[in-house]
Amino acid sequence: MKTDHLVPYALALLRIVSGYTLVLHGTAKYFHVPHIEMFDNLQALSMPGIAGMIELVAGILLILGLFTRFAAFIASGMTAVAYFYAHAPQGNALFPLMNGGETVVLYSFIFLFIAAAGAGAFSIDNSRKA
User: Which parts of the chain span the membrane according to its record (predicted)?
Assistant: First the structure.
């Protein structure tokens, strides 16, 4: 059974869900929704503050499918930096399971895949091409 016709829809679902979860990181940092105590005194120009700005903007762009490849590339880089900045120094850099970095590694490669593959279905990028 051929399922190639489903690929653009699966890619869109991956883009939208990963964009949504990325936005949640930004809203937790800047709008305290959901509330995470460690972000209560966040400084906008700190590393987590700048990451929060990227998470908000790139996440919204990914959800909409607007400038998808660029937004995903930036998000991929930001999550890679997060891994090497926050998780790898805890030891076992080659074993994300041991330093709490599995999620950020997966984010990095998901966003890198989206940057290479494009927006998929249901995107503003695709409607602008028509």
Answer: 43-63, 70-86, 106-124
